[in-house]
Amino acid sequence: MHDFTIPVGPQHSSMKEPMCLRVKLDGNTITDAWMRLGYVHRGLEKILENKTVIKALYIAEHTCGICSFTHSLCFIRAVEGMLNINAPKKVNVLRVITAELERVHSHLLWFGFAMHEIGFDTLFQYAMRERESILEVFERITGNRVHHSFNKIGSVRYDLTSGDKIFILEKIKEVENKLPLYFSTVTKNKVIHARLISVGIINQFEAKKFGLVGPFARGSGVKIDVRKDDPYAAYKEADFELVTEKGGDAFARLIVRLREIEESIKIVKQMIKALGDEPIPKPLPSISLPNAEGYGRVEAPRGENFHFYRIENSLVTRGKIKTPTFINISVIPHLLKGKTIGDIPVILSSLDPCFGCMERIIVVKNGKEEVLKEDEFRYKYC
Amino acid sequence: MGIKTECVKNFFKKPSTKNYPKEKLEAYPHFRGKIKYFNERCIGCQQCFKNCPANAITFYKKGRIDFDMGKCCYCGLCVDVCPVAAIAFTTEFEYADNDKKKFIVK
Questions:
Q1: How many angstroms separate the Cα of A177 from the Cα of each of A172, A173, A186?
Q2: Which residues of B touch A184 (CB under 8 A)?
Q3: What span, in angstroms and rounded, lies between the C-alpha atoms of A310 and A318?
Q4: How confident is the model at residue A264, as a pLDDT?
Q5: Residues A151 and A27 reside in one and the same domain
Q6: Are residues A141 and A231 in the same domain?
Q7: Which residue of B has its CA nearest to A59?
Q8: Are residues A315 and A288 both part of a single domain?
Q9: How far is the alpha carbon of B28 from chain A, nearest alpha carbon, in Å?
Q10: pLDDT, tens only, B1-48
Q11: DSSP code at position A114
Q12: Beta-strand (E) ranges in chain A?
């Protein structure tokens, strides 16, 4: 057999975002794999520096386009901890509603794209239709479909009217009614079984060793969830199940995410019932902070988000953002070994990668000029 | 199989998409769209300019401020902070263009 090393990417057929994967092949079997990231690095932590806290909240929110609310919630948790603000119960309940709706929308988006990768475009269209109803809810309650800018320090932007509550329940019902169809299709369809079962297996021990988080770890039976381990906002009052599966393969992750949609819908219903009638407080007009350091951690749709901030003279002087996807992608070369080329899109998409939010680091060569031909550049840096 | 029943149901349904350029969906009242600037109300306090996280606002003088909607992140800080309500969001969302100069609201 001939040995080949081929680059998959940066612009490749399966992912919408750029990432270079180099795989060494023996025939059709992958024997080794390397990754190169850094194509969509935006220097977000540098932009955060020397900004006031109120400005930095909206910059931190722009870390990710899909789970933007959880990033702002993480920032809020860090800053409110430093200020010793305890947001009233109603504000916390509104935050949980938005966070859980975002989880539903993120998992539906992932479900659609995962089905698209294996060629099941009907389910992709169905999932996108369901996601649209959640986006409509966002447009109505927060004012924007993607970057909600709903959080404020000590408060939220809008209160829910009684019409909004009915609207949310209606739209959630639409999603809930369709879920049994997806479950039955996923568990019965032979094509899905052939493409997903025993692909990209990672057992519980290895998942803990790599430090995986979120639905990716829960698919291997690791009980890890910040909502249970370190409850924030109003998650203490919420009654929900920590979903785990024992399979550890791409199919188990699919089932975990579908079941999490069910759990999230359950939480939203509970929270709407728990919503009181009192008005929400007005946001603080200006904030003078002591010199302090603080962190926040929340459960994003893809796993644990961690933000660290240092504040001096009411300005953010250091921000550190740790996203769940950056941890999860480290396991990809390990998962690809021994698999075929056709499994690459399935394994990559099964971890729900989001390159926009994982690019926290880039190598800049200091003072050394390099002259490279196009081929050399491609070999060295692509 | 669920897909077959879905096909039969959809025979008797209206199309779920809108005939876009002719019919338009209405945005919800909270929706943050294009900014509107009332220059006769402005008192030149520069609060919007100082608070913008995206540096989308250019301040020239009292009554003359440029808002670059291409840079705007629609966070709404300038609207919240304005003491005389000279800045407001409209529900307009259709202003995609090839010319960057058309994004500037004066």
A1: 9, 6, 16
A2: 2
A3: 5
A4: 94
A5: no
A6: yes
A7: B53
A8: yes
A9: 6
A10: 667 887 888 888 888 788 888 988 888 888 999 999 998 999 989 888
A11: H
A12: 3-8, 20-26, 29-36, 51-52, 151-152, 155-156, 292-300, 303-312, 315-322
Q: Helix or strand or coil: residue A29?
A: strand
pLDDT grade for A333, boundaries at 50, 70 and 90: confident
Split at pLDDT 50, 70, 90, the class of A362 is: low
Residue B103: count other Cβ atoms within 10 Å of its Cβ.
17
Residues A50, A22: one domain?
Answer: no
Per the structure, how many domains does chain A have?
2
Of B27, B28, B74, the CB nearest to A147: B74
Local structure of A86: helix, strand or coil: coil
Average confidence score pLDDT of chain A? 87
Domain chopping of chain B, boundaries: 22-105
Residue A286 in tokens: 């200006």
Determine how many CB atoms are found less than 10 A away from the CB of residue A21.
21
**CA-to-CA distance for A105 and A101, rounded, in angstroms?**
6
Structural domain including A8 reads 3-40+328-381
Distance from CA of A121 to the nearest CA of B (A): 12
Tell me what pLDDT residue A378 has: 59
Please, what CATH class does the domain formed by B22-105 belong to?
Answer: alpha beta
User: Which chain A residue's Cα is nearest to B1?
Assistant: A185
Same domain, A152 and A276: yes
pLDDT of residue A19: 83
pLDDT for the residue A327: 86
What single-letter amino acid sits at B72? C
Same domain, A15 and A125: no
Weakest mean pLDDT among A25-29, A69-73, B38-42:
A25-29
